[in-house]
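Suppose you are handed a protein chain with no further information: no name, no annotation, nothing but its sequence. What can you learn? This example shows the usual starting point.
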Amino acid sequence: PNIQCLLEDFVSYASYSLPFGMISLAENNTHLILKLSDVLPKLHHQFYYETAASNIQKVLEDFLGTDVNHGSIHFPYKPDNPMDYHKHFNHPVCFSSPTFEYHIAKEVTLKPSISYNVDLYQYTKILCEKRINDHENNRKITEEIRTLLYSSHSKNWKISDVSKKMNISERSLCRKLQHEGTSYKSIYDDV
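A reasonable first move is to predict its three-dimensional structure. Written in structure tokens, the prediction is:
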């Protein structure tokens, strides 16, 4: 497939494995826009966004077998040394954007991958779908608690509050979380 297919698949699958933010794909007349938003405050620092931009650029270049330089990268902060960013990335770089955005020119997104293998692609899609189904079946309580904690981040949620809100005993809640391979403390600390 082309980069557009790659990004669409990435966004659909990544939304299940990014507990720290939201990833989405948008477009305007000239670009596809990969957005990273609602990032947890403790992760909202330069290294996180620099790593995301570097990894996206590397994947795109590996996918096409050439430099990708028809786009722009938008960071949600202004660094001390903005010229370092311009040296590192092959795109114009913008700062103080409301969200992290990686803009990729539409003509680039339609180019086929140099390493596309239809069998490997189909197999990978099957594995990703299986992982999503497993995730949905096995992590429902964990995600429900995370959603609850995110929705009222300022409230100091105790396990007793959560169990009452979910209409389940504390003991049952702990057992279900243990079955999912986690604990209330672990979830609470993540949020």
